[in-house]
Design goal:
about 150 residues; two-stranded antiparallel ribbon; about 45% helix
């Protein structure tokens, strides 16, 4: 009985080693691989997110640009800057350029919401439900075009 067990185990191990050697000898990983396509080829990115904005600026750049805009508006005391801002904010265009909840730039493809007669834009699809749950908490930050500090 013991002899049969050792014979079985020996045959099994020998067969496994033979299969491993044959498989390693026949393995050709680079056969038929043409490499990456030339620039402008049919290459599609490995990660695609249709909800992500095309050009996302870092938060520092977005904050700096909004600070520069507000500084320019305060420099002009004649009220012309205020008139220009209200003329730019048409009923369908958001008054903010940065989402107050996530800090991303406003995506023009995303649905908007109304707050105190102003159109509010969002950076991603998860921000609108948060805003609608607590509009008085987030609304003033959207109107000031600033990100909420947590």
């Amino acid at each position: 009985m013991t002899r049969n067990i050792f014979l079985f185990l020996g045959t099994f191990v020998a067969g496994a080693l033979i299969a491993l050697v044959v498989r390693a000898a026949m393995f050709a990983p680079h056969v038929g691989h043409e490499g990456h396509p030339a620039a402008g080829g049919d290459y599609a990115g490995m990660v695609s997110n249709p909800l992500a904005p095309a050009n996302v600026q870092p938060r520092e750049a977005a904050t700096a640009s909004s600070t520069a805009r507000s500084a320019a508006a305060h420099e002009n005391h004649s009220g012309a800057a205020t008139k220009a801002v209200t003329a730019k904010t048409a009923p369908g265009k958001p008054v903010n350029s940065v989402c107050a909840i996530c800090g991303m730039d406003v995506d023009p493809k995303m649905p908007t919401a109304q707050y105190q007669g102003q159109t509010i834009g969002f950076g991603c699809k998860m921000c609108r439900p948060k805003f609608e749950a607590e509009p008085d908490r987030y609304g003033p930050s959207y109107l000031k075009n600033e990100v909420i500090k947590r």
